[in-house]
Amino acid sequence: xxxxxxxxxxxxxxxxxxxxxxxxxxxxxxxxxxxxxxxxxxxxxxxxxxxxxxxxxxxxxxxxxxxxxxxxxxxxxxxxxxxxxxxxxxxxxxxxxxxxxxxxxxxxxxxxxxxxxxxxxxxxxxxxxxxxxxxxxxxxxxxxxxxxxxxxxxxxxxxxxxxxxxxxxxxxxxxxxxxxxxxxxxxxxxx
Amino acid sequence: xxxxxxxxxxxxxxxxxxxxxxxxxxxxxxxxxxxxxxxxxxxxxxxxxxxxxxxxxxxxxxxxxxxxxxxxxxxxxxxxxxxxxxxxxxxxxxxxxxxxxxxxxxxxxxxxxxxxxxxxxxxxxxxxxxxxxxxxxxxxxxxxxxxxxxxxxxxxxxxxxxxxxxxxxxxxxxxxxxxxxxxxxxxxxxxxxxxxxxxxxxxxxxxxxxxxxxxxxxxxxxxxxxxxxxxxxxxxxxxxxxxxxxxxxxxxxxxxxxxxxxxxxxxxxxxxxxxxxxxx
Lengths: 191, 280
Hints:
A: 191 residues; B: mainly alpha; DNA binding (chain A)
């Protein structure tokens, strides 16, 4: 992911509607992936994650005028907001699941486009999602930002409040942990 | 394995520099979305996971969507206990009213006024908004509403006043009264005292131009002959006194004529501005 151009951000912060619309369109695909990565599928679809990504974009828009005051990189600003929204959604989901039967969570992969390969990918993806839940919050956030969003180690450092070097060490630990976790389940995974 | 072992500042066991570099390169590749060659099973899983995130098309961005109830959409989530009232059907009252009745084309004078208003906003409002900023009829208007709600309030009020003035000019007094009521509601949302003063003055001038007769029951004739217009009554507006009407933002008077002309006002704004409108 290439970070939005600082001039574009500046114009958007100053209230230029065209720049604002362009900016939000630039960050939106990454925000969508971020939310999908954290929230996964419900009922085989990313509908809920996409709703949350919508909220993130609106919240970013509303917070834009205050952006400069915070003195953070723009990506850190965006994913700070996104992290809060995702956490809110996860809390809401927990509350909801506490009172609702789990039948809504259906692991059927979507059979629409390119069924077989798609189903295989979805299956693998779901296994990885499961592995991610065993990581610490910080490690999971780093992996999501690095892989799903595509931020650089430097940008991730800005977002999570660490030096790039510390991010690189942490991401290696996260991968190492994932490999260990995967080793325990790979036996059942066709290569 | 290698000699390049570094003392790590962290409490856990040190990580090999080579490993750190290789992992960093791997994550860079995965993050860019390209397929990673090799037989690294974890890399393949991460690649499949990343690819899976893009399988569904990008959802359309709905500027008017509201934070809390958006979750409850089709995801099957329970909305918040008090979230129901925020689900508002109409997107943008300005747009819908315009599209429903295409009576009022944008005139050069209106454009000039709008541009002038934008300049005033840009200089007086303390927010450096580009003078070419969006107006309520603009496709980018929803963006302005979200990013600069204060500016949007002023422009929306100005827009309603402009439309009311056009209605007065064309002797559509029933329309004018509705539009004036609506503008008064919008003016009540404006925070900047200078803007409020200016907009109220415009509203009062418009009210003074209305005929003295009470609002007739539904005579929406857009093209009334000029002879029918009574002399403008200078005293007070018929439905609301000039001073008091501005302060009372209740939209209820507009329903009395049964026009069905004006849907709820800018439904997206109330929930975006809870501090301004504590109850709506």
